[in-house]
Write a structure and sequence with these properties.
The chain has three domains: 2-64 and 107-184, Rossmann fold; 71-105; 190-274. The chain has helices spanning 2-7, 14-26, 40-51, 66-69, 75-84, 90-96, 108-114, 131-134, 136-143, 174-178, 190-200, 206-220, 230-242, 250-260, 264-274, and strands at residues 30-33, 54-59, 71-73, 104-106, 119-124, 145-148, 152-155, 161-166, 181-184. Helix 11 (190-200) crosses helix 12 (206-220), helix 11 packs across helix 13 (230-242) and helix 13 (230-242) packs across helix 14. The chain is built from 15 helices and nine strands.
């Protein structure tokens, strides 16, 4: 699992690889919690890439309902079907039907259940859902099935690998957590982040990768509105490579901090902390 994830561009540690392996073997979803920018979403993408599976993603938000998460009916086609059968005997209309599968629009959850091949299902930022919307997930995560009143119960042809991510903006329900294996992803150590930079930006000088990781680790300890993510560390590394940097000087750091930090207040705080 470690080797497969590394080949997919994700440098995981042993606990992370163990949870992913067990989730696949036990057919259990994985709930990944941690600060924004620690690689939660990327882990699901990398598992899909390593396993050669299609990734189906549902971006969660407040007010997400069944029609966007699970399924809805194609009302325009249903209306056209009714118009085509207008004036015919009721029996013929019943036989034609407007609640067949051809009128069903699959959203991410149903698409993962109905997929003819195994897939990875990513439910991103589930903590943004309200409690009522969160309940929509329970049947899928416990039975891997979807109940459609007009058609009956649709059961998964292949059990998908499911990953849920949360930035801890609110506590998730016990019912949801009970169905999942748990994984917490924090920011990596300086050594691991330097290794991540070297993996993704191999042409960057080794000492620059180490200096980037050290400076980013220092900034994350300061009072920033948005600490730099791993992705932004990689963006900064690519920026230095593009500029042909050989050393991380104060002038270069000051000129490129906007790649790493996204608020003016954070940039001012970083300059004061770094004294540049």
């Amino acid at each position: 699992m470690l080797a497969g994830l590394r080949e997919a561009g994700y440098l995981a540690d042993a606990p992370t690889a163990t949870v992913v392996y067990l989730a696949a073997e036990l057919a259990k979803p994985v709930l990944i919690e941690g600060p924004a920018g620690t690689g939660k979403t990327q882990l699901a993408k990398s598992v899909a890439l390593a396993a050669g599976k299609r990734l189906i993603r549902l971006q969660c938000y407040e007010g997400l309902d069944e029609s966007k998460a699970i399924y809805e009916w194609d009302y325009r086609r249903q209306l056209l079907q009714l118009q085509l059968h207008q004036g015919r005997p009721t029996a013929d209309l019943d036989a034609a039907g407007v609640f067949g599968e051809e009128f069903l629009l699959s959203r991410p959850l149903l698409a993962a259940i109905r997929s003819p091949e195994p897939v990875v299902l990513l439910l991103d930022e589930v903590d943004r859902l309200d409690i009522e919307s969160e309940a929509l997930l329970l049947e899928v995560l416990s039975e891997y099935q979807v109940s459609i009143p007009e058609l009956g119960t649709v059961t998964a042809r292949h059990i998908p690998q499911v990953f849920l991510t949360s930035n801890n903006s609110r506590d998730l329900s016990e019912a949801l957590k009970r169905r999942c294996l748990y994984l917490h992803l924090g920011y990596p150590s300086t050594e691991r982040e330097a290794e991540i930079v070297r993996l993704h930006v191999p042409d960057l000088a080794e000492h620059l990768a180490r200096e980037i990781a050290e400076l980013v680790a220092l900034l994350r300890k300061t009072d920033l509105k948005k600490p730099p993510s791993i992705a932004e560390s990689l963006d900064w590394a690519r920026t230095l490579l593009t500029l042909g940097a050989t050393d991380l000087t104060d002038d270069l750091t000051r000129q490129t901090l906007s790649v790493l930090l996204k608020y003016e207040r954070d940039i001012d705080t970083a300059r004061a902390e770094l004294r540049i």
